[in-house]
Write a structure and sequence with these properties.
The chain has 140 residues and is mainly alpha-helical. The chain is built from three helices and two strands; from the N terminus they run ααββα. The chain folds into two domains: 71 residues, no CATH class; 58 residues, no CATH class. It starts with a helix and ends in a 29-residue tail after the last helix.
Length: 140
């Protein structure tokens, strides 16, 4: 069996599972949990094979190349800077945290119908608040 046929069969299997859930023949929770388990398995396998794939990709002089019907692009890692060891930055970050804490407490107080002023009577600026979507955690 060719690898392309194998993956095509897997895609069809996933599509069939989705159809079974849509039609109410299979429980969504069980299928969701199994997809999460499969994703975790594939993520772990990808991490394990990534160094080997990177080594193989280094054999290609071009940044973009094709192999086995796929197009690959090699990208250099980005440069990251850390300033957390600089005393001035540490001090300013502490001040920022204090301001954020006051603002968050003022928001919570406002939600409870309380005043949001500091000891000088000045109103404490409230943070902009957004909410992420709910999630469903799966463990076995």
């Amino acid at each position: 069996m060719s690898k392309d046929l194998y993956y095509k069969m897997r895609e069809e299997e996933v599509a069939q599972l989705l159809t079974e859930v849509d039609e109410g023949n299979t429980q969504a929770l069980q299928t969701y949990a199994n997809f999460k388990r499969a994703k975790d398995l594939f993520d772990q396998a990808s991490k394990q094979i990534e160094p080997l794939a990177m080594d193989e990709a280094s054999n290609y002089a071009e940044k973009t190349f094709s192999e086995a019907g796929f197009t690959f692009e090699k990208r250099n890692g980005s440069t990251r800077y850390s300033f957390n060891h600089i005393p001035e930055v540490v001090k300013l970050n502490e001040q920022i945290k204090e301001i954020e804490t006051k603002s968050k407490q003022a928001f919570i107080a406002q939600q409870k119908g309380l005043l949001t002023a500091d000891t000088n009577g000045e109103e404490i600026p409230l943070p902009k608040v957004s909410y992420t979507k709910d999630s469903l955690i799966v463990k076995k």
